[in-house]
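Sat 14:20. Reprocessing the chain from the morning session after the first attempt stalled halfway. Input below, unchanged.
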Amino acid sequence: MTDCQFQRGSVLVMVVFVVSIIVALSVRFTSDFQLTVARIEQHMIHTQLQQYLHSVENFASWVLIEDAKKDDSNGHFKSNGAGGNYDHLQEEWNSLLHTPIETATISAKLTDALSYFNVNQLLGRPQGYNPNGVFSQRFTVAQKRFVRLLQTHPDDLVDSILAQQITDAVVDWIDSDNTISGIGGAESYYTTLKPPYRAANQLFISVTELRQVRGITPEIYDYLKTVVVALPNTVGININTALPAVMRSLNQKDTETPLSKEDVDILVASRPPPRGESDDNEAINHTIDGYTSVDDFFKSDGAQRVFGGEVGLLPPKEGLRTGSEYFILEAEATLLDYQRQQTSMLKREMVATGFKVRVLRRAREQL
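Finished this time. C-alpha cells:
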C-alpha cells in the first residue's frame, strides 16, 4: 500500500468517526429537544387546565353572590354577616355544570356544605357534664346526633355503645385538654401505637383525620367520609339540604338511636325536591321555596307525622338552620388527553360593600 492510499484510508476512517459522533449527538439532542417540548406542552396544558378551574371558582362565586342578592332583596339573608339563612335544593346554585369550551370540557357541581354533618360542632361539653352519667348527661345536642349518625352505617357495623365510644374519642381529638372523655375517650392512647402520634387537640382541618381516631376502622371511615365535613367553625345542619343520613340523626333529644329510613323518607318528601328532579316543580306537602325557618320545618306535615304535634316530642332546635355560608365546589377540566380535578371550600359572606365569596382551601382529595 502506498503512502497516498494509506492517508486516504485514514481520512476515510476519521470522516466515518466524526460522522458517527455527529449522528450520535444529533440523536441525543433530538431526544432531549423532544422531551423538552413534551414537558413544555404538558406544563402549558396543566396551566391552562388550572386556569379553567380558577374560572369555575369565579363563576361559582358569582352564582352564590347573585343568590345572596336575591335572598337579601326578599328579606331572607342575615344582616349580621354570618351568611345566608335561606338555601334549598331548588336554587340555581344546585345546578350541575357541564359545558365544552374550545377543545376543553368543564364539569362542576356546588354542594351546600351544611348538608353534611360538621364534625367540628362536636366540640364542647353539655351543661352538667357527667362522664360516667347517662346519655343525656354525657353528650351535647350535636354529639348525640353524631352518635345516631354513626349508627346509620348501611352494614350495621356500629351499635349505640360503639357509637358513644367513637364520639368520646372524636371529642378528645378536638378538645384542647388532656382529660379522657367518658368510656371511649383517647388522649395519650395514640402515643402507645407504632408509629406513635398525638391527638390534634384542635378542630379538624380535613375529614381524613378521622382515620387516625380511636375506634374508627377503615370500613367506618369509608362511610363517614360520605356524610361528614370539616368546617372552620362549629356551624350545624341545614334542614333544607341535609342528606338523608344526617336527617336520621335528628331524633328526640335523649334518644340514642337514629330515625328510621321510613321516617326520614317522609321528612325529605316534605322538602322541595332537588332542582330538575320534579316534573311540576312542586314539593310534596310543601312549597317550592323551602323552609325559611326551623319552626317552619317543625310545623310541616312531614315533621308532624314523624314527631307528633307536641313540642316536647320535637328534636332540639339547637344547631339547625335553613341556610348556609359554606359550599363545596367539585370541578373537573379535560383538555385533549389531560384531566385535572379540584375540590374547593367556598365561604359566602356579607361585607360593607355587599357580598363576597372567599376560597378557604383547595384540594385534590376530600376536604
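The first strand starts at residue 97 and ends at 101.
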